[in-house]
Amino acid sequence: MKLQNVILPSTDTCTEESMYFRRGEEVFYSWCNDWIDIHPNGMIDFDTYFNGFSAEKWMKYTKVKDVTLMLKVKGYLRLTLMRKEKQGDKILTEYVGEYLCITEKDEAKEFTFPFLTPSPYGMYCFRLTGIEGVSVFYGASYHAEITKKESNPVKIGIDICTYKREKYIERNLNLLNDRFLNNPDSCLYDRLEVFVSDNAHTLDTKKLSSDKIHIVQNKNVGGAGGFTRGMIEIKKVSEKHRITHILVMDDDIRIEPESVFRTYTLLSCLKDSYKDTFIGGAMLRLDNRYIQTESGAMWNGGELISLKSRLDLRSLDACLFNEFEEHAQFNAWWFCAFPISVARDDNLPMPIFIRGDDVEYGLRNMKHLILMNGICVWHEPFENKYSSFLYYYVLRNRLIDNALHDMNMPKKAFIAELKKQVNDELRIYRYKNAELLMRGVEDFFRGVVWLSQQDGEKLHQEIMKSGYKLQYLEDLEEPVQFLYPLYEASLHDVPPLSKNQRMINHFTINGTYLKPIKSYNIVPTVGICQASVYRVDTVLNYDYASRKGFITRRDPAKCRELLKQLHVLCNKVDKNYDEAVKTFAENYRQLTSLAFWNRYLGLE
To answer: Of 1, 246, 338, 442, which one's alpha carbon is 20 to 30 angstroms from that of 525?
Structure first.
């Protein structure tokens, strides 16, 4: 069985060479022809993020015992097989074997060599060195002896939820069509079915649909509702199409098709003891494609910890660090596969619209998670996506997720956290965000019955109107003057405040109750420094990624009003917090049933 392909950089996915190979001066990669020329003494290593073989994970979770490398080359080359492992701050290299690959002058030939090492740890990889003339590397793959009887029957239903992301969807569907769905030579041909929930009703269904791509128009009930609709549609036809697994995947990602292939091969040879495992894809940055944002995560009661964050995957050390497994509580739904048996009629996601649905489902169902170099997606960094309405969902859904899984903060700790979050928004004049935070808490106290009776689309529209709306500067209600040096100055660190200044800042809510000393400033929407708005009358909150912004103004009366509301809410939390948590924990199952979702989505 072929386990994984050795892949090369491409303008379709990623052009960072050192994530695929490391080459010396006498090695030349032909982008247009998709092969590599190796001159005498030229050396190229494949100990990389996409082309190393994660031996330990394959040996632990699957029926793989012995691994072979198959490569197609032309010319006169030396092949060196290696095993590399991170040990503390050092890298151990074991030379497993060395062979000559010699072909006739103009003839390409396939060679197969075993990795003869007793150790399953770290990464298996290889090196090619040119001996004579110009040799050519055409491709390679890793294989194992897995019989058809030993392999697991696998067919994947890909579940995509989208809202007005037509270009992303079309691009990813085209990639899946080209590589798998319409490619009879692929082993995934007839092994994938794609289901797209179109929450905005904007996709060209006639153009994009096929016998393998199924698009349904869905209510705008967020990611939770869109992914759940996909699960429902997959389950309807699972027996007919023999679907065994669901792969949830975001709409605004850039996928590496090989990630889908490796997910399939992993599932095909899992040991019986790991058949209930989840397979997760890491998130890499779309702007700096070699930087890993997250590879599995810890929820930690809402203090989300992204594992192996900010690794530079061009580095061998980072790739070997990725090989170590750390305890993870969930994998985000930008790319996450699990058995269809998990999505039972009584075990569907919670209707919490966005933010926290993947967390909750992972906490509820995930026993094992496999994360592997080369299984990933590229995604826009979160700091490049500012949305005011998220203040409502993040805090409300954090309370819900914690209540369901007995991770709720102690009452006093939550009150302190609530006060801090609200006060932080008041100090930068973002009064609407403060209101959204408090409304999220209020709606949590309304309980399961209230949540079950909500029209998710209508509620979301209301929440959207309650927050700040990013607009092009010329469309703002009043004209503003954008000066880049003014904006750039607000990005720089400021000297720490003295004790006296901190006292004044605290009691005046960052100068809100004092007379302004500056009429106008420009600050970033994310990572704003409170000193940048201290005693400023009007603030342009500028989102560099979208080139849009919104205006906020210092308003002492509004600040006092919201502090009074916060005081009332904290008293309510003090009286009702424990009972609200208990009520959610005892009654949430009525929101995860197929009968509920059919009503919620209007499918009855």
So the answer is: 442
CB burial class (10 A; 0-12, 13-18, 19+) of residue 142? Answer: buried
Q: What's the rounded Cα separation, in Å, for the pair 438 and 419? A: 10
CATH no. for residue 332? 3.90.550.60
Work out the burial of residue 423: count CB atoms within 10 Å of its CB; fewer than 13 is exposed, 13-18 middle, 19 or more buried: middle
Same domain, 362 and 455: no
Please give the radius of gyration of the chain, using alpha carbons only, rounded to the nearest integer.
27
Report the number of distinct structural domains present in the chain: 3
Confidence of residue 598 (pLDDT cuts 50, 70, 90): very high
132 and 281 part of one domain:
no
Q: Which structural domain range is residue 235 located in? A: 156-382
Measured between alpha carbons, how far is 13 from 34 in angstroms, rounded to an integer?
14
pTM exceeds 0.85 for this model = yes
Distance separating alpha carbons of residues 76 and 1, to the nearest angstrom: 28
Read off the pLDDT of each residue in 309-315 and give the average, rounded to a whole number: 97
Quick one: CA dihedral 50, 54, 58, 60, positive or negative?
negative
Q: Give residue 48's identity as a one-letter amino acid code.
A: T
Q: What is the mean pLDDT of residues 428-446?
A: 97
The two beta strands, 156-162 and 192-198, are parallel
CA-based nearest residue to 351, from 597, 603, 604: 597
Let me know whether 163 and 219 are in one domain. Answer: yes
Q: Is residue 603 part of a domain?
A: no
Q: Is residue 199 part of a domain?
A: yes
Q: Which of 334, 460, 443, 438 is nearest to 387 (CA)?
A: 460
Cβ atoms of 212 and 174 closer than 8 Å: no
d(CA 524, CA 154): 47
Residue 187 CB partners (closer than 8 Å, separation 6+): 2, 261, 264
